[in-house]
Amino acid sequence: MTIVFLNRMEQEGEREVRAAQVWIEEEGGLWISGWNEDGAPESAAREIWYEGSAWNEMLAVYRHMLAAKLAEGYRPIIRDTFQEFLESGQRGRFTQKLVCYSELNANEELYKKLAAWRRVRATEEHRAPYLIATNRALRLISTFLPQTLEELRDLPGIGENTVQRYGELLLEQIAGAERAHAFPLDWVERRLDEEEFTAWTYKSKERKFKREAERVRAMRLLLEASKSGGSLSQIGQESGLERRDLVEMMESLEKDGYDLEPVIAHELQLMPERDREAVLSAYAEMGDSFLKPVLKKVYGEEPPSEPGLDILYEQLRMLRILHRRTQNAAQREAQPEASAGAPEIVVSPQTKKDAQARREVNAG
After folding, report:
1. pLDDT tens figures, 101-149
2. What does the alpha-carbon distance between residue 247 and residue 64 come to, in Å, rounded to a whole number?
3. How far apart are the C-alpha atoms of 123 and 145, rounded to whole Å?
4. Chain-centre distance for alpha carbon 182
């Protein structure tokens, strides 16, 4: 077993310093990463984070788990480039401190009121709630309580379009709430504890890398299922991703040339054949840019309500993948010189350059 990367981590407590090692090993194409805590019982001393042959999946899991340890207060003895990568990934420091303060000092009651207003508004306008205002924006508003449109503009992530379209309505929702601070918000930097902010930063990175690790794992599982078949429910359970996210990933993989027909066939096996043909015919007639016109043409002006509607949209998206695949195949037959096979799935890098990259894993 070859040690590719090793670093010592320490966590300072009130009475003692806890120490551990983070490491990555490789042998015969098998990657293992993990964590050893000094002084832990032998049965619990070696914590395996990942063991498998997929380099990119190992790296994603490593990033997620290391960010979690940094959020707990562990710091590397040798300051490595991975920690610098975590810190350089921050947006403007002041902006991040505003977001941090709003999450640590949230007015939950007011936040829930804003979220309820957004939900009603989204239903009335037939828009996704996040297009009206993100959760982060509502959290900032409920914490800092702007009283004018200019103060609303001072909050990060709230664009001019949101201010023009919903600004007055948002201010109405928080009108009357008592505010014990003033704008501008430069006081936040003085009031926010630096160590608390650092821990929050790493916790945010942990969530981000967790999502990335889930996506990398889901992509591997989808590509494996494309060879032997498999269900999205099972892939979702193993990866942690929702079905909607998996279908979006399938659409992206199909654009890159991967054949996911075995997965689609498994998911559409309960869909009536006449419905499949009707949907494919509608795509051929109306185009595949939008799903709603196809839904109405096949199922009428009054489609079923949720969750049946969600299932129909999922089926439409999978059939759109098949439709586009058929069209692309027809184009390749018309232009054989431009045809190309499906991209090769590379599990582990093999070049000298990639080998060097593996040794510098902590570069993030």
Report:
1. 999 998 999 999 999 999 999 989 888 888 999 999 999 999 999 999 9
2. 24
3. 25
4. 35
CB–CB of 319/280 below 8 Å?
yes
One-character DSSP codes across 245-269? HHHHHHHHHHHTT---HHHHHHHTT
Neighbour order of strands in the sheet with 46-52: 46-52, 30-37, 17-27, 2-12, 75-76
State the DSSP string of 256-312: TT---HHHHHHHTTTS-HHHHHHHHHHHHHH-SS-SHHHHHHHH-SS---TTHHHHH
Alpha-carbon dihedral sign for residues 285, 288, 289, 295: positive
CA distance 242 to 135: 19
Query: Could you please report the per-residue DSSP string of 167-204?
Result: HHHHHHHHTT----S-SS-THHHHHS-HHHHHHHHHHH
Q: And the tokens for 107?
A: 């007015």
| pTM flag (> 0.85) | no
Question: Which helix (H) or strand (E) segment is 46 a member of?
Answer: strand 46-52
DSSP state of 344: P
Nearest by Cα to 113 from 138, 148, 140: 138
- Is residue 67 within 8 A of residue 167, CB to CB? The reply is no
- Is the four-CA dihedral 169, 170, 173, 178 of positive or negative sign? negative
Task: State how far the alpha carbon of 204 is from the alpha carbons of 35, 198, 210, 211, in Å.
Answer: 21, 10, 10, 11
Name the DSSP class of 12: E
